[in-house]
Amino acid sequence: MALSTVRAGTGALSDLPVPARPRVDPSHVVVPPGYTVDVMVAGLSFATGMGFAPDGTLYLLEGGSTWPTRPYMPARVLRLDPDGELTEVGEETLGGPRGVAVHDGGLFVIDKGGYHSRIVRYDLGTWERDVVVDGLPDGGWHEPGGPVFGADGYMYFAQGSVSQNGVVLPQGFTVDQAKHPHAHDVPGQDVTLTGHNIVSYDPTSPYPYYAETGAFKPFGEPARAGEVVPGALKCNSAVWRARPDGSEMELLAWGVRNPYGMALSEDGRLYVSDNDYEETGDRAVAGDPDRIWHIRAADLPPGTVTTPDWYGFPDLCGDGLPVWAEEHLPARGRRAEPLLADPPPWAGPAVYLEKPHSCMTKMDFCRSDAFGHRGRLFACEWGTMAPMNSPDPADLDHGFKVVAVDVEAGTAQDFFHNASPGPASAVGGGGLERPVDCKFSPDGRSLYVLDFGVARVAQSHMEAYAHTGVLWRITRA
User: Fold this and answer.
1) DSSP assignment of 322-353, as one string?
2) From CA 174, how far away is CA 63, in angstroms rounded?
């Protein structure tokens, strides 16, 4: 379906008919010397992901109105042809599309749930649509990840946790309980619970009653000390691989709180981004760093992983310390207690730790000498949701940039950002808002950065604005 679009010069970007983002100006962003920035598309709504076809066609995703916004906006799959024509190729339901990849004549899209997330495949010849993976436990706060395809021909994908901090609580009411009151986390291995339940107010009750909730339970259902919760292949906070048709599904890892970003290096190693716990509510955790994990089980041949690796959720922070450690005691909210009586061995440490509440999202490796920085992992940082999820003023400007990560050294340099920390809508000008995805063009000469758009956060809520998303392009001069 053709879209109502206008091809415009750069001058039009200074007077856009969108009050929340009236100006987009490449001169207001910062990149290293020797690189230039231009704008490819403006006016996207709730952009969530993108993926290239080998011929340079770029598929873009709009997440739709599952974000807290009004009025209704469709959750769409868009196609940007190499000649610049933008068309719609499909709409997705449930919670909207979150990731997209082209492989062997198919367009693979992962959709956020609903009670379950899924992966669908569009045939690029006939545009027939089939579900290839379904039943990944969702219905909560966090995102599905991937899909990405390895040289082995397998599809790698992920699903984040239902709960924010290990127990389904009122702080996630607008997403978890209001839409999916029976959603809960599912472990990837059999776990024994401590029985540390959380007593909280019940937002589903017409009176101020209290409810008791345990780990891996729906809201209002307590756990028992010594209770064994069976692990499942289709769990959450998890990373899998499968054949492109969904067969031979294999659980590689679990305990990854929000594995939204996934990338394979040139030597075939799988890396996943992950977001920190929140310093709010009835199981609050402070100072937890964002991180990037190397999923080591993906290095093994398909079909040989007998026990998935565990990366810490719901009891360990990104630095490997328990969520109840002194370093992570909250200034706001109730301190956390252990939920697992017999946690599996930790698969850390992370290959990279970032400042808390940077909100690391999607990533891509540079495989080109033409662009420079070959071997570096370029990672988007969507930006903080403080003060909603942290009372620390220092967290207010974390993120809002793209960094180039050296996964061997565990270091990073800022690559694409505003002159002042924070989104353009807060610091002024027409620069970057919230980068959500980055992908290198098939020829390796340009890095495309997908900017979600304006999302303003207060202590009690977040407001996201339609028609404020932007597709940027960075090219070596």
Assistant:
1) BTTSGGG--SSSPBP---BSSPPPB----SEE
2) 17
Token pair in block for residue 465: 């604005």
Residues 73-121: tens digit of each pLDDT: 899 999 999 999 999 999 998 889 999 999 999 999 999 988 999 999 9
Helix (H) or strand (E) holding 426: helix 424-427
Q: Give the integer Cα–Cα distance in Å for 305 and 297.
A: 7
Radius of gyration of the chain (CA): 21
Is the link from the previous residue into 71 a cis peptide, with omega within 30 of 0?
A: yes
pLDDT tens-digit profile of 268-290? 999 999 999 999 989 999 999 99
How many whole angstroms separate alpha carbon 434 and alpha carbon 382? 5
Segments in 230-350 forming alpha helices (H): none
Q: Please name the residues in contact with 50: beta carbons below 8 A apart, sequence gap of 6 or more.
A: 58, 59, 60, 61, 100, 437, 439, 448, 450, 471
Q: Identify the bridge partners of residue 52 per DSSP, sorted by sequence position.
A: 58
Q: How many CB atoms lie within 10 A of CB 326?
A: 7
In this structure, what token pair is assigned to residue 268? 């075939």
Domain boundaries, the chain: 1-46+351-477
Which distant-in-sequence residues (6+ apart) come within 8 Å of 391 by Cβ?
Answer: 279, 280, 331, 332
CB 52 within 8 A of CB 439: yes
* Cβ(445)–Cβ(420) below 8 Å: no
Determine contact, residues 293/313, Cβ cutoff 8 Å.
no
241 membership: H or E segment, kind and range: strand 238-242
